[in-house]
Amino acid sequence: MNFFRSFVATIVLGSISVISLNYMVDPLRFFGPESIAKFEKQTRYRFPGLIRNQQYDSIFVGTSMSHNFIMADIDRLFDTKSLLLPMSGASLFEQSLMVKMALATSRPKTVFWEIYDGVLAGRSGEARKGADFPFYMYDKNIFNDIFYVFNFTNTLSSISAIKNNLEGKKVNHNAWRSKEYRAHKYAHGCPYMVVEQMRGGGILNRNEDLPNNPSDIMTNIDKNLLSIIKENPEVEFILFAPPVSSLYQALLLQKQPNIAAALHMAKSYAYPQLLRFKNVRLYDFYTDKVLTHDLSHYRDFMHYSGELSHRLLEAMKNGRNRVMGNWYQTVFDHKVVMTAYPAEQHIQLCSQQSSR
């Protein structure tokens, strides 16, 4: 009996020690804005703390296609104090969790939201495949915080942070801002974009041409986009479809026609409903041939440069590319142009440049 009591006491004391350690060090800055730990590289774990504890009046959510926007540009053009929250491969569901969390904590007056068609055409409750998502950090249930403070990975981070601090390795508390900009890490244009695309998985494959069910797509848009806008009429939502390269768009139509049709259906379902909201400004750069034909702005078939990101902000500020009542004809005409786009020829030309 004494052994059993000692065993239980050891377990309880050990658990309390782990919880206390993670609460005090707070390696992901979940409970407060400062910690002696380095900032977490994985955005799915870093962003909840930023959303809860940073000062801002606007947020900017999206996928990796929003990595090259700069908070200073957003703030200057729109007279705001922004928080940039791009998440690589983020589903609409993951993005909606960030938006809901921000609206429940800091009540931003503006939400900038990148709505790539591929995200709209997802399922309502899906997170990125292969990415561990900490749902317990995004909900309102304080009892779920036990999964944060009683967490082996966080304990290792807390111990490492204490070790580094004792060795005099201090942390820059503004280091999270340096993670907002990535364009300088990549070369853009031919031949680099084709090389990068091949490294990332090659050209679009017919074997992957498996779109989601239309009802799943509509549910996704309803639950993770439209309902949030409807429930927050006092918040301005500035939404935009990013300028994915014409090369990608043409290959999608040629090699994955079912997925292309699903993306078109998602846009056709979302756009007319979004236009009914008085608190929505909707912009479409996907159909802007001036932007998407210029391959010098792309590091692969989808991701564009910091310069182009800046141009998008200026366009939205000045009301250019805003979606109006004639949007369907614009989308239809654009599809005709993309069907005739010489994608394979452009790939060949880029590949020839890489071999020189």
Describe what this molecule looks like in 3D.
The chain has 356 residues and is of the alpha/beta class. The chain has one domain (2-354): SGNH hydrolase (Rossmann fold). It has 15 helices and 5 strands. It has helices spanning 2-25, 43-53, 71-78, 92-105, 117-120, 146-149, 152-166, 192-199, 214-231, 246-255, 257-274, 289-292, 306-317, 327-339, 343-354; strands spanning 58-62, 82-86, 110-114, 236-241, 280-284. Strands 2-1-3-4-5 form a 5-stranded parallel beta sheet, sandwiched between helices. Helix 2 (43-53) runs parallel beside helix 4 and helix 9 (214-231) runs parallel beside helix 11. The N and C termini lie far apart (79 Å).
